[in-house]
């Protein structure tokens, strides 16, 4: 069985969590499924416990208070005992065989840090999906959103996990910062032969905001854009320094 841990941050995600979990349980290559209840006030924890009773791969982690998705993902990554991590948002779902394909790719390419799954965007408004540039911007999202990411745990920790800046928590963009950093330091490829993870639309979803701005339906706030770039650059610089430090360390020689 494949050494992959799935990490699901969940804040009041009871309406969709069962669907996400069922899609995880169908992945034979997942040995651990961590749901991080990020201070929910709904039935998210109860739903997770119910699935845990059915399948021992499911484990509930509970945050004392809401700390944001980045913090929840990073905390679960510290608990994960496996060399590969996969991230799934509570309102998304894996399609059959998604992690099997990712595991096979990582086995065949031992020097690659990560692989991205291709995303199927379901229920998005037609003004977005019928736009002539939808496929172009959908590809950018597929290289960015957490639910598309399967990464070596060692590389994830070396990068520092998802950035936890207060700015990103308020405005989003931590997934973009991680994607940029991953691409710059280790590189990242994405499957393009078929959809492997499904993102369901709901009002206010970050993906819609990104598409609205890129397609010209909404004008980006210059101050927010500048701060996003600044925080992302700071995260990239810190990650580069961290990886350089690790690479410069001498490995301890075993005693004989």
UniProtKB/TrEMBL annotation:
Domain Glycosyltransferase 2-like intervals: 5-129
Any GO MF annotation of the entry: glycosyltransferase activity
CDD domains: Glyco_tranf_GTA_type
Pfam families per the UniProt record, alphabetical: Glycos_transf_2
InterPro entries for the chain: Glyco_trans_2-like, Glycosyltransf_2, Nucleotide-diphossugar_trans
Transferase among keywords: yes
Record key words, sorted: Glycosyltransferase, Transferase
Entry coiled-coil feature ranges: none
Keyword Amino-acid biosynthesis: no
Source taxon at top rank: Bacteria
Entry's family note: Belongs to the glycosyltransferase 2 family.
Name of this protein: Glycosyltransferase family 2 protein
Gene source species: Paraburkholderia silviterrae
Lineage: Bacteria, Pseudomonadati, Pseudomonadota, Betaproteobacteria, Burkholderiales
């Amino acid at each position: 069985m494949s050494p992959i841990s799935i990490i699901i941050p969940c804040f009041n995600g009871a309406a969709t969590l069962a669907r996400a979990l069922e899609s995880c349980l169908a992945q034979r290559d997942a040995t651990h499924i961590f749901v991080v209840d990020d201070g929910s006030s709904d039935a998210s924890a109860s739903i997770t416990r119910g699935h845990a009773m059915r399948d021992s791969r499911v484990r509930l982690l509970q945050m004392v208070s809401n700390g944001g998705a980045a913090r929840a993902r990073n905390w679960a990554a510290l608990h994960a005992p496996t060399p590969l991590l996969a991230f799934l948002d509570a309102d998304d779902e894996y399609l059959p065989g998604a992690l099997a394909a990712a595991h096979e790719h990582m086995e065949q390419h031992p020097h690659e840090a990560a692989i991205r799954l291709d995303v199927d965007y379901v229920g998005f408004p037609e003004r977005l999906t019928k736009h002539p540039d939808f496929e172009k911007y959908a590809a950018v999202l597929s290289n960015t959103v957490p639910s598309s990411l399967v990464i070596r745990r060692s590389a994830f920790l070396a990068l520092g996990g998802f950035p936890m800046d207060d700015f990103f928590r308020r405005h989003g963009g931590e997934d973009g910062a991680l994607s940029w950093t991953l691409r710059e330091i280790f590189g990242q490829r994405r499957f393009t032969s078929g959809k492997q993870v499904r993102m369901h639309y709901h009002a206010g979803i970050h993906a819609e905001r990104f598409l609205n701005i890129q397609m010209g339906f909404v004008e980006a706030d210059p101050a927010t854009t500048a701060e996003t770039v600044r925080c992302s650059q700071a995260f990239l610089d810190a990650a580069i320094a961290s990886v350089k430090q690790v690479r410069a360390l001498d490995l301890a020689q075993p005693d004989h």
